[in-house]
Design brief:
The protein has 498 residues and is mostly helical. It contains 22 helices and 2 strands. Strand 1 and strand 2 form a beta hairpin.
Length: 498
């Protein structure tokens, strides 16, 4: 009987073409690790980053190859649709920028180039799995594959105490978030008897009961939201964000601030708008309250900071609140507005972090505001991109950030949550206090009288090029937003939102 049962078990059919972007990332991570074991400085400093870039370009090519597909693979565990494909492009772009930022970074030497870039690719693979997940098990696998490499990368600058502290804090808090998420997912399975998002929705519909009347489902959903809130840095689950962002190597902070947030909101969108979409009236007020708290806490928390990385960390919390508004309205317009803002947030935040990385290498003041004093006169090639990034994050017109916030406000009004649209506008007004403070510090005369030893610009054309390209894109998409509109259009329909 055992033999007969064994022969009746069949492996799921795998559409390797649709699965190919994730396969490319995983295989590339293994190859990069093996290359890193070879001797020679040229191998470590040139071939390993080169192989990482080739892996990312291959992933991008395979993603474009699948463009327009809307299918489920591996017995419905993963979805290949506009939502997952758009976010794959975001992940690849962020990965490429992170590789360029890391070329002169001490962390790559101290942790080992092969190991550093392998962990980066592994985390990207986890993100690709996460945003495509249509199953509770796949969701958790994606979360862990995303998170575990990042715990190590945050502590990869082994000779700096703050980096090790950041890795430990992220490990502890991230583990709590993962455990909470896992408990929540197990409760959801217990309440519905299904791990598939569509099966969960069908079970809730067939039972004819609301989430509020099912204590097991209500508890599970609440814990799942808390677990995802940790990953997305949603208040009040954001406490780890400022310390980890400040302590981690700046290229990794940059990577986390955009890619991890995009992945967390990607699965947030898919889970809430597929698995529990029929119960939206039950969970919308909860997420609306979290969005409001996050906007207020993020903007107020940034006001007293003197470290630019900590300012950007609190800013990231506030931006998470804006993005959460698009999930609250649970409509195609809300999903596409969230995706649009995620794309432009990547561009403007990477512009800011490119300048932070450059200044950390040029001055002994690190990432403090004093490192940016008088930058407009000393290094206008860095001051201009930073200014554009700050204005865009604040939502000033003629920037991509303004268009993104306008879309979110429009979606909130159409979804009968106009008060959240008003709160986005108020939060943006408050944010001017700390964004413009950075701008003022850069363009006001520097009276510190720094000696050449404390402020010594040196050649790093790749970082300057990144800052210029990202800031130019911020202006371009603020004036001509149609390319991003075309990119995200149809994402709502791909997961059943009409």
């Amino acid at each position: 009987m055992i033999a007969a049962a064994a022969t009746s078990i069949k492996a799921p059919y795998i559409d390797w073409a649709a699965f190919s972007p994730i396969v490319a990332l995983i295989c590339g991570a293994v190859i990069v690790l093996l290359i890193g074991l070879l001797p020679g400085r040229r191998v470590r400093e040139q071939i390993v980053p080169g192989a990482t870039v080739l892996t990312l370009l291959a992933t991008l090519g395979l993603t474009i190859w699948q463009w327009g597909e809307n299918t489920s693979i591996i017995s419905g565990a993963l979805a290949v649709d506009r939502l997952s494909l758009v976010l794959n492009v975001v992940f690849v772009a962020t990965g490429l920028v992170t590789v360029v930022m890391s070329l002169r970074e001490r962390a790559t030497v101290q942790a080992g180039q092969g190991e550093y870039y392998t962990l980066l690719l592994a985390s990207l693979a986890g993100m690709a799995v996460l945003v495509a997940a249509q199953n509770l098990v796949t969701l958790f696998v994606g979360i862990e594959l995303l998170s575990i490499p990042l715990y190590v990368l945050c502590a990869s600058e082994l000779q700096r105490e703050k980096s090790l502290e950041a890795g430990l804090k992220y490990l502890v808090i991230g583990s709590v978030g993962s455990a909470t998420l896992l408990f929540g997912l197990s409760f959801i399975y217990g309440a519905t008897g299904s791990t598939d998002f569509s099966g969960i929705a069908a079970a809730l519909s067939s039972k004819g009961e609301t989430i509020a009347s099912n204590p097991l489902m209500l508890t599970g959903l609440g814990m799942a939201v808390v677990g995802l809130g940790f990953k997305a840095a949603i208040a009040p689950f954001h406490q780890w964000t400022p310390d980890v962002y400040e302590g981690a190597p700046s290229p990794i902070t940059s990577f986390m601030s955009v890619a991890t947030k995009a992945a967390a909101f990607g699965i947030f969108l898919r889970f809430m708008d597929v698995a529990v979409i029929d119960e939206a009236l039950t969970w919308q007020p909860l997420l609306a309250a979290l969005a409001a708290i996050t906007i207020v806490v993020g903007n107020v928390g940034a006001l007293a900071q003197t470290s630019v990385k900590r300012i950007l960390a609190w800013s990231s919390v506030a931006q998470g609140g804006y993005l959460l508004v698009g999930i609250v309205v649970s409509s195609a317009a809300g999903l596409e507005a969230t995706l649009y803002y995620l794309v432009v947030y990547v561009v403007m935040n990477l512009a800011a972090f490119s300048v932070v990385v450059a200044r950390e290498r040029e001055t002994t003041h690190g990432d403090s505001l004093s490192a940016f004093a008088g930058l407009g006169s000393k290094r206008p090639i860095l001051a201009v991109p930073m200014t554009i990034a700050m204005l865009s994050l604040a939502g000033i017109p003629a920037t991509a950030g303004f268009i993104g916030k306008l879309n979110l406000i429009g979606a909130s009004v159409d979804g009968d949550y106009a008060w959240l649209g008003v709160l986005i506008a108020i939060g943006s007004a408050i944010s001017l206090a700390y964004y413009l403070r950075i701008v003022a510090v850069m363009w006001m005369p520097d009276r510190r009288g720094d000696s050449p030893e404390t402020d010594r610009p040196h050649g790093q054309p790749e970082i300057i090029g990144l800052a210029i390209i990202c800031s130019a894109a911020t202006i371009f998409f603020g004036i001509i937003p149609s390319p991003i509109y075309d990119l995200v259009r149809g994402a709502g329909e791909s997961i059943g939102l009409l």
